[in-house]
Amino acid sequence: MIVNASGCLDALEAPEVARALDVFVTKTVTPQPREGNRPVRIAETDMGMLNSIGLENPGIGGLLQEKLPRLAELGVPLWVSVGGFAAGDYAELCAALDERPEVAAIELNLSCPNVEEAPESAAEIVAAARPQTRKTLYAKLSPAATDLPETARAVQAAGADGLSLVNTMRGLALDEKTLEPSLGHELGGYSGPGLKPIALAAVYQCYRATGMPIVGMGGIATGRDALEFLAAGASAIALGTILFADPDAPGRVRRELAEEISSRGLSGAEAATGLAHSSRPVTVA
Ligand SMILES: Cc1cc2nc3c(=O)[nH]c(=O)nc-3n(C[C@H](O)[C@H](O)[C@H](O)COP(=O)(O)O)c2cc1C
């Protein structure tokens, strides 16, 4: 399954790109509308990009009234990414989405490096959100967690159904001439090819720790990258930064992945999931 990484595709602006995906994931929505951080909000780096968008979004009201009905017309299953500044925000957002048939699943963004973090732990947020919705809940985690497998186990115990791994990592780019921070917000979230080994490690470790369904992302640009995320333990992959450079990436990566899979004599993507663990059996407690 190929999805987009939250915040990396505007499906209403580029419906043909969204239709090439198996699922469209919205940009993170918060209880109230947000204008996001001041410009400059995107900077190029040698091995990827930095962004400090700061969760610009129309708020849950704007999403439910205006965007969701239009997104549903795309005919692609929808996941809504939600974010907040306290566990109660996540609970409120999940309750508001629970009754909406257009929403197939909810991704809890527990890891945006561009805004203040909720004071509660990831597991406490999942525990607050879980009773508010019957929908599938994915917990999106930061690769910067001190003990990521432990966090993954804790969100699983709190009721998450799957993991989205990983969000961006905090980074800094300096202006070539002034040597001052390139981004208006100074620090930003680092994404793209440089994130791939870190993201692969996160998927590998969390698969071993939990056995949960994992949406793997972080620098995926080719079918070979996608295959590696499946082998590490992902059951789906998300395309993020690559979509800015190559809007045809969903179809291309899908074709390349199919070639990678068939050239190895595998029956399909499911047969590739977890291959990196073949000689080290996974025992989930
Ligand atoms: C411009 C931009 C905006 C993003 N916005 C969000 C967001 O709203 N919510 C979220 O969970 N992740 C957001 N992300 C993180 C991506 O979903 C993804 O986790 C990250 O970019 C790693 O994947 P990639 O290297 O393929 O881009 C954003 C990333 C970028 C580059």
Number of H/I helices: 10
Overall geometric form:
globular
Largest sheet: 8 strands, parallel
- The helix/strand series, from N terminus to C terminus, equals EHEEEHEHEHEHEEEHEHEHHH
User: Mean pLDDT, as a whole number?
Assistant: 96
Short description:
The chain has 285 residues and is of the alpha/beta class. The protein is built from ten helices and twelve strands.
Walkthrough of the structure:
- The protein is α/β, with parallel strands linked by helices.
- It has one domain: Alpha-Beta Barrel (TIM Barrel), CATH 3.20.20.70.
- The chain is 34% helix and 17% strand.
- The strands form two sheets. It has an eight-stranded parallel sheet, covered by helices on one side. A four-stranded antiparallel sheet has the order 3-4-10-9, with no helix packed on it.
- Helix 4 links the parallel strand 6 and strand 7.
- It is globular.
- The protein starts with a strand and ends in a 13-residue tail after the last helix.
- It binds flavin mononucleotide.
- Flavin mononucleotide binds next to strand 4.
List the helices and strands and how they pair.
Layout: E1 2-4, H1 15-19, E2 24-25, E3 42-45, E4 48-51, H2 59-72, E5 78-82, H3 87-98, E6 103-109, H4 122-129, E7 136-141, H5 148-157, E8 162-165, E9 169-171, E10 188-191, H6 196-210, E11 214-216, H7 223-232, E12 236-239, H8 242-245, H9 249-263, H10 269-272
Parallel strand pairs: 1-12, 2-5, 5-6, 6-7, 7-8, 8-11, 11-12
Antiparallel strand pairs: 3-4, 4-10, 9-10
Helix pairs in contact: 3-4, 4-5, 5-6, 6-7, 7-9
Bound molecules: flavin mononucleotide.
